[in-house]
Amino acid sequence: MKQMKRMTTAFCVPLGALLCLGGCATMAPKYTRPAAPVPAAWPSGPSYKGEVAKQTQRQLADTPWREFFVDPHLRQLIALALDNNRDLRVAALNVERFRAQYQIQRSDLFPKVDATAAGNFQRMPAGEFGSNPAATINFYSVGLGVASYELDLFGRVRSLKDQALEQYLATGQARASVQISLVSQVAVGYLTLAADRERLQLSKDTLASQEASYQLTRRRFEAGVSSALDLHQAQTSVDTARVDIARYTTLVAQDENALNLVVGSKVEADLLPRKLSETLNALRDVAPGLPSDVLLRRPDILQAEGELKALNANIGAARAAFFPRITLVSSVGFGSSELSGLFKGSAFAWNFAPQISLPIFDAGSNLANLKAAEVDRDIAVAQYEKAIQTAFREVADALAQLGTIDSQVAAQQSLTDATSESYRLSQARYDKGVDSYLVVLDSQRSLYSAQQNLITVRLARLANQVTLYKVLGGGA
Q: What are phi and psi of 346, to 5 degrees?
């Protein structure tokens, strides 16, 4: 026990000293966040609501998605997607991968201690003319050792550790960005399916109405009351509705396939929407806040900043390459030619082999590596600024639509109501023989188009809310 205590003491004292020597600061430049290259306020003008910049509600990034998406079926689909979607799964695995890489890089800050035990058995041949008899030599050893530990006096290893840490944190933000995109894709897919199902139902209802009108017109034609022109015009309305039914039947099937893909599994029929008019209140309104508060909190912006910090730390490693590198190899233990004498006092042995490497001539490779690291950092700065500018444009575009979409919906609703009344009156005038069927047909086409457009603008309004959820940073 005394020998083992002696061995541990002899090993731990210099080991602690090595750790103290290796705990220095890095040579990386001090990081300063680049100024956001965008205005301090959102755009203003006829396309924007006047109160946009004055809203002070809770930011969307602080609002959980379950509070923003209030439709229960849509919530269930989003939850299924978060569990099953493969893109999100890959993003989560990337986070685990970079966390492991960070832990590997961080471990280089500490010496790696190995326990060793060995036996060496060798037979020596007899000397010439029998001067030395043949002999067998045995040697046993046991000990602890540090193999190739670099004293981080100039912060090279610590800079690499900081780089790995920032890359790991950046992948976490990348995963959050993928999640926000996934949630918005599910919502848009859900609403698009609802719209196409309503368009399909409208086409079927129109077909039923037009077939009834066609049969009535045909009987009038056979009775000599209506002309052949009226009959063929009624036929065109029937065929138009049939074409739309076939087209929207295909779109509904494709919408369901797209939703199954983004959710990551087959969506049960009871979770699918029936029509868009039943989902008009599926989402909450949002407050955009101010650019400086919103954009710098978007996961993709934080990811770009994390990559910038990683490359900034890499400059420290490139700078440290110009200075000496001290590597230590040491061991302490016991050795003996007899196994029974392995732990006796005379068997104690130690080895300490420091090595210093000083770059003298490298044909400019270290200088080139430093230059490359600095250029990579500058590229990351430009990419970070471009990400902020792109984010600003995305939010501004969504706000521009937000400022006018309610007016579009109201105008389209008024147009649909007026067209419906026009169709009713034209049908009544035709039944009394006042107008030709061409007037009825024109009114019917106008009503059908107005109803389809009303579905389109309602979908655009809901999609705009989803877009704002996405471009304003979403919510966990």
A: -70, -10
Q: Is 51 exposed, middle or buried (0-12, 13-18, 19+ CB in 10 A)?
A: exposed
Q: Which two tokens stand for residue 354?
A: 């420091």
Q: If residue 357 lies in a helix (H) or strand (E), which one and from where to where?
A: strand 348-357
What proportions of the chain, in percent to the nearest 5, are helix, strand and coil? 65, 10, 25
Residue with tokens 């060496």: 120
**R_g of the chain, CA atoms, integer Å:** 38
Are the C-beta atoms of 237 and 207 separated by less than 8 Å? no
Average pLDDT of the segment spanning 455-476:
90
Question: Of 181, 171, 170, 173, which is closest to residue 87 (Cα–Cα)?
Answer: 181
CATH number (1.20.1600.10, 3.30.930.10, 2.30.42.10, 2.40.128.270) of 31-109+152-324+359-471 reads 1.20.1600.10
Of 193, 58, 87, 76, the C-alpha closest to 463 is: 193
Kindly list the distances between the CA atom of residue 116 and the CA atoms of 18, 113, 354, in Å, as whole numbers in the listed order.
21, 10, 20
**Strand-strand pairing, 135-151 and 325-336:** antiparallel
Which of these, 188, 183, 205, lies nearest to 255 by C-alpha position?
188
Structure tokens at 368: 């080139």
Instruction: Confirm if 457 and 274 have CB atoms less than 8 A apart.
Output: no
Find out whether 222 and 230 touch, Cβ atoms under 8 Å. Answer: no
Do residues 70 and 283 touch, judged by C-beta distance below 8 A? yes
Nearest to 475 by CA among 286, 273, 290: 286
pLDDT tens-digit profile of 204-248? 998 888 887 778 778 877 777 777 877 787 788 888 889 999 999
Which helix (H) or strand (E) covers residue 355, if one does?
A: strand 348-357
pLDDT tens digit sequence for 146-164? 777 788 888 888 998 999 9
The pTM (predicted TM-score) of the whole model is 0.81
Strands 113-124 and 135-151: antiparallel
> Which among 145, 10, 119 has a CA at the least distance from the CA of 2?
10
**Local structure of 181: helix, strand or coil:** helix
Q: Give the angle 313-297-30 at the CA atoms, nearest 5°.
A: 25
Task: Write down the domain spans for the chain.
Answer: 31-109+152-324+359-471
Query: Looking at 213-222, 355-364, 373-382, 387-396, which range is the least confident one?
Result: 213-222
Report which of residues 141 and 66 the model is more confident about.
66
Q: Which tokens sit at 22?
A: 């290796």
Rounded Cα distance, 18 and 317, in Å: 20
